[in-house]
Amino acid sequence: MTDTGTTTPSRASPRPLTVAALYRFTRFADPAALRAPLEGVCRRHGVRGTLLLAGEGINGTIAGTEPAIAAVLDHVRALPGCAALDVKFSAAASMPFHRMKVRLKREIVTMGQPGIDPNRSVGTYVEPQDWNALIADPDTIVIDTRNDYEVAVGTFDRAIDPKTASFRDFPAWFRAERERLLGEGKARRVAMFCTGGIRCEKSTAFLKQEGVDEVFHLKGGILRYLETVPEEESLWRGECFVFDQRVTVRHGLERGSYGLCHACRRPVGDEDMASPLYEEGVSCPACHATRSDDQRAAYRERHRQETLAAARGMAHVGAVLEKDALEKEDG
Fold it and tell me: Rhodanese domain location, by residue (predicted)?
């Protein structure tokens, strides 16, 4: 598999914390044996976030001081096959995670398709500076592989939204739509993109397995595009959802304008917040009908405790605001 490269955080940034989104597809013979040492180095250096380990590799997002993140990345790069680890850096004014978790999973990004191996077959990487020309070509089919709530926040010009609630739904969607998209006499070139690149590793490998030859994906994902392509040249519209307390980012990876519903983990904009179904920390228009009064009461109490803890300058021990964030991204 081609190395997807690594960017480095700016040392001139006045902001105190570094956020590192990382992944690597590689073969771990015993991922369970890697868990405790990895979690130990994270905790020793005060790093927080979530890392997923599986037989197919590692995936996660962590935050801490620049030296602390460097120490954890040194440890990860020493793991089997991880020397060419893909990392994307950004900065945060405050810690975007409440705790450190290292979890064992069947897949580091769940597609649920047997035999998919990005180490064996994957689409052609396209550098961010070359992406505009590819997706502007009318002979290119552009597919956003992210979940529906992510696409609603922002996407590229001409991108098709599969309207999937989970990445597990993508294979069925493609098989159902294949004839319409790639039938006789139609464009055969497919370009796909996702937040950081990991889902596209699997989705392009899946399309190759399905017999599609001309498959391309954005190297480093949306995050690297927003980091490197000047806004005045950009074909990106809106903001990009990220799986931490920043919620969304804009060009230059500056924090975006969206809030987060802590009940369903979906982004909420100004229109959502103006809805009578929105209550901070409790519900939003997307999830209000799916939660019971008892659940909303529990969320309300949690939010009250978090607010009190914040006013006292304390971390709320029971808060799990990033709960299952990677599993949500994973799915």
Answer: 136-234
| 113 belongs to a structural domain | no
Whether 228 and 275 map to the same domain: the answer is no
What percent of the chain shows pLDDT beyond 90? 74
The span from the first CA to the last CA of the chain, in angstroms, equals: 23
Cβ neighbour number for residue 139 with a 10 Å cutoff:
10
- Please write the tens of the pLDDT for every residue from 144-198: 999 999 999 999 999 999 999 999 999 999 999 999 999 877 777 999 999 999 9
Between helix 221-228 and helix 128-136 the angle, nearest 10°, is 100
CA 175/CA 172 separation, integer angstroms: 5
Contact 60, 326 (CB under 8 A): yes
Would you state the pLDDT for residue 90? 85
Amino acid at 304: R
The alpha carbon of 209 is separated from its chain's Cα centroid by a whole number of angstroms, namely: 24
Q: According to the model, what pLDDT value does residue 45 have?
A: 97
Query: In the annotation, is 261 catalytic?
Result: no
| Other beta carbons within 10 Å of 212 | 19
Answer yes or no: do 89 and 147 share one domain.
no
- Tell which residue, 26, 59, 25, 5, has the closest CA to residue 219: 5
Residues 100 and 130 in one domain: no
Q: Per the structure, how many domains does the chain have?
A: 3
Does the structure show a pLDDT above 90 at 316?
no
Say what the pLDDT of residue 248 is. Answer: 95
From the candidates 194, 200, 261, 284, give the one annotated as an active-site residue.
194
**Token pair recorded at residue 42:** 């994270």
Range(s) of the domain holding residue 55: 17-104
CA-CA distance, 211 to 200, in Å (whole number)? Answer: 16
| pTM of the model as a whole | 0.83
Distance CA 14, CA 17 (A): 9
328 pLDDT exceeds 50? no
Is residue 30 domain-shared with residue 98, that is, in the same domain?
yes
